[in-house]
Amino acid sequence: VAGLAVFNRKMSVIHFFLKENGRCITRLENMGFRVGQGLIERFTKDTARFKDELDVMKFICKDFWTSVFKKQIDNLRTNHQGIYVLQDNKFRLLTQMSAGKQYLEHAPRYLAFTCGMVRGGLSNLGVKSIVTAEVSVMPACKVKFGFLQKLK
Amino acid sequence: MSRQASRASESKKMNSELFTLTYGALVTQLCKDYENDEEVNKQLDKMGYNIGVRLIEDFLARSSVGRCHDFRETADVIAKVAFKMYLGITPSVTNWSPAGDEFSLILESNPLVDFVELPDNHSGLVYSNLLCGVLRGALEMVQMAVDVKFAQDTLRGDNVTEIRMKFIKRIEENLPAGEE
């Protein structure tokens, strides 16, 4: 329980970090990319190779998302042709801001960071992808990704 | 069975690292943007200041500490409440000056620097300088002008990490023109 309190406080601080770098979305995405690479590097050094796309997706949705944001994603959809949409209804980086329209314009910077993170993580797993995100109703977000190549 | 167990402990490691990695990515980005370490240090301090002036509100709302009566009390609150709350560590407060206006915070560990090594070409970088800005900004909002700097840093080869804080003066609240 004490752990969760420190985690929440650290989330607030991360918020402040990102606000300070908020002017440029590309910059945030790049920062996120580096973070994602670092996270995956530490996490998967002892695990076996992923056997296919589905295995990678399961990892992102369960292990990766849960360890980083302390909760599971709420929904995952796919068109079975390499596009996946992951939905988190109470996205941790957005729950710090009050629900409602006033902060909606700031949401993209948090999403850019997260997209970069997922893209960086996938990149270190050997997968090139395009990752985008949208927020329609705070604090829910949808992260969409497309695998640019088949997993070898 | 053992594979699941190792995944769970890896998972625990990973979430404390989001914070460390995000800070690292921030510092790296600044090193790319600015020519030299001095500039990066300044930017970290400035960023920290902007964060501190807003973080103080969060802190006061969540900690319910009252007004500090003197600098000693301030030091204790910073070490035992604030650092604990945001970084999960409790530095020790030592090396008080005879006048009681200067003290050191000794950090046994620093979550910002886990797994960080400074490359040789960045020996002038004060990696955690953001912390100095945060402390300065936060205290300014409670009417204290302070000077904060790193006296020792394990990243630069010292045995401990030491932050030195000096009280400069009390900031009088500015009343809007026309009021007494």
UniProtKB/TrEMBL annotation, chain A:
Coiled coil spans: none
Subcellular location field: Endoplasmic reticulum; Golgi apparatus, cis-Golgi network
GO biological process, one term: nervous system development
Entry superkingdom: Eukaryota
Gene3D superfamilies found in the cross-reference section: Trafficking protein particle complex subunit 3
Main location class: endoplasmic reticulum
Transmembrane segment boundaries: none
Keyword tags: Endoplasmic reticulum, Golgi apparatus, Neurogenesis
GO cellular component terms listed in the entry, alphabetical order: cis-Golgi network; endoplasmic reticulum; trans-Golgi network; TRAPP complex
Similarity comment text for this entry: Belongs to the TRAPP small subunits family. BET3 subfamily.
Stated role: Component of a transport protein particle (TRAPP) complex that may function in specific stages of inter-organelle traffic. Specifically involved in the early development of neural circuitry, likely by controlling the frequency and amplitude of intracellular calcium transients implicated in the regulation of neuron differentiation and survival.
Protein name: Trafficking protein particle complex subunit 6B
Upper lineage: Eukaryota, Metazoa, Chordata, Craniata, Vertebrata
From TrEMBL, chain B:
The keyword Ribosomal protein appears for this protein: no
BP GO annotations: Golgi vesicle transport
The entry's keywords: Endoplasmic reticulum, ER-Golgi transport, Golgi apparatus, Lipoprotein, Palmitate, Transport
UniProt superkingdom: Eukaryota
Transmembrane domains' residue ranges: none
UniProt subcellular location: Endoplasmic reticulum; Golgi apparatus, cis-Golgi network
Chief location of this protein within or outside the cell: endoplasmic reticulum
Cellular component aspect of the GO annotation: endoplasmic reticulum; Golgi apparatus; TRAPP complex
InterPro entries: Bet3 (IPR016721), NO_sig/Golgi_transp_ligand-bd (IPR024096), TRAPP_component (IPR007194)
Described purpose of this protein according to its UniProt entry: May play a role in vesicular transport from endoplasmic reticulum to Golgi.
Oligomeric form and interacting partners: Homodimer.
Family: Belongs to the TRAPP small subunits family. BET3 subfamily.
PANTHER family to which the protein is assigned, alphabetical: TRAFFICKING PROTEIN PARTICLE COMPLEX SUBUNIT 3
Record protein name field: Trafficking protein particle complex subunit
Organism: Erpetoichthys calabaricus (Rope fish)
Species classification: Eukaryota, Metazoa, Chordata, Craniata, Vertebrata
Underlying gene: TRAPPC3
